[in-house]
Amino acid sequence: MENQHQRRLSFEDTTIYIGIDVHEKSWTVSIHMEEFEHKTFTQPPDPTILTNYLNRHFPRGNYCAAYEAGFSGFWTYDALQNNGIKCIVAHPADIPLTDLEQRRKKDPRDARKIARGLRASELVPIYVPPLWAREDRGMMRLRESIIKDGTRIKNRIKALLHFHGIVSEHIQARRWSGAFLRWLESLTLSNPQGTETLKSYLRQLSDNRQELARITREIKRLSTTERYAKPVSYLLSIPGIGLISAMTWLTELVDIQRFKSIDHLSSYVGLVPGTHSSGETERVGRLEKRGNRRLRTLLIENSWVVIRKDPGMYQAYASYCKRMHGNKAIIRIAKKLLKRIRFVLIHETQYEMGLG
Q1: 3-state secondary structure (DSSP) of residue 109
Q2: Whose CB among 1, 126, 305, 320 lies 3.0–4.6 Å from 329's, allowing a Cys bridge?
Q3: How far apart are CA 245 and CA 301, in angstroms?
Q4: What is the DSSP letter of 125?
Q5: H or E segment to which residue 307 belongs
Q6: 233 and 193, same structural domain?
Q7: What pLDDT score does 276 carry?
């Protein structure tokens, strides 16, 4: 009789708000109705368990869930969506919290604040790229990690040489040519253990270079696919942007059409200065830390190259330098370059030199 009653229950016109504090080994879940909190509990990190709970207690309800962006990426989002639970991912800094929650962080409080923010429509969802875009972006970021690993190995080799009192002009000039590597391989340090340590580092460096070459070839292949070939060609027409830069821009932006204005794109890249306004006083400070760090760094690098290759951009830079420091002037050039990047991608056209 009870089961028949449960089958007749329907929450079709009821929205169930679910805040999830995601961790590797467990989730803290807080379920709220429009009028009150239903329950806050801990469960294994399994979307199916949560789905079964909701279907059992709130059959045919309108389920809405949210969690903070973090280490787990978007697989939770995908799984919840596939299970019929509407889901958003929120930036941690955008979730409203009380002073007590800020000073006393606990998982149940975190889950409750997410559920409350979701119920009050105070959470702004971040963009969740499609799975293919995440995979492509992951490969570009892997290449970046491989380069950083190679730099660490080189630094260890240099530290070892300095430890043994060996100084090379190649190290001072930061050149790691084939001749320098062959010289390193021929070195014999003061004892066999030191020599073996050096050779181990050199093997690691060789493996690192081979892996970097392998991933770079795969990125080049990816750039020729139907999805990327045309936009890559538009970005390559911009002086200062090479193939790796172009693919980084495309995999990080994913869809240029999602940025409704240059201000929206500038905010995403992190090219917006911080401001402090009080009464009639307003101060403009440094660039905000928030934004896509990779694209902001890449944009500045591209900007330094474009002023050397595009006469119009150089004239604009020289004009800015008359009234501000060069590092501030390059930020202005970066904003101009960002407009050009957006323009060539939206209008599917080539870059025009000398516009300034």
Answers
A1: helix
A2: 320
A3: 10
A4: B
A5: helix 293-309
A6: no
A7: 41
Mean pLDDT, residues 130-144: 96
User: Does residue 353 lie within any of the structural domains?
Assistant: no
What CATH number should be reported for the domain holding residue 45? Answer: 3.30.420.40
84 Rama sector, left if φ>0, alpha if ψ -120 to 50, beta otherwise: left
Q: Which of 48-52, 229-233, 274-278, 322-326 has the lowest average pLDDT?
A: 274-278
Give 30's strand partners.
19, 40
| Tokens 């467990």 sit on residue | 26
Contact 326, 250 (CB under 8 A): no
- Per-residue pLDDT tens digits for 253-267: 999 999 999 999 999
Residue 285 in any domain: the answer is: yes
Of the candidates 236, 160, 162, the residue with the CA atom closest to the CA atom of residue 201: 160
Is the pLDDT at 166 greater than 90? The verdict is no
What is the rounded CA–CA span in Å between residue 287 and residue 295? 14
Residue matched to tokens 């009028």: 35
pLDDT in tens, 27-50: 999 999 998 899 999 999 999 999
Q: Are residues 191 and 282 in the same domain?
A: no
Q: Which residues contact 27 (CB under 8 A, 6 or more apart)?
A: 20, 21, 42, 43, 44, 45, 50
126 is a domain residue: no
Nearest to 302 by CA among 214, 212, 237: 237
User: E-strand spans in the chain?
Assistant: 15-22, 27-32, 37-43, 62-68, 86-90, 273-278, 281-287
Sole residue written with tokens 């492509």 = 136
Half-sphere exposure at residue 315, Cβ-oriented, CA atoms within 13 angstroms? 7
DSSP labels, 16-49: EEEEEEE-SS-EEEEEE-SSSEEEEEEE-S-HHH
Q: Indicate the pLDDT class of residue 170, thresholds 50, 70 and 90.
A: low
Residue 210 class from Cβ within 10 Å (0-12 exposed, 13-18 middle, 19+ buried)?
exposed
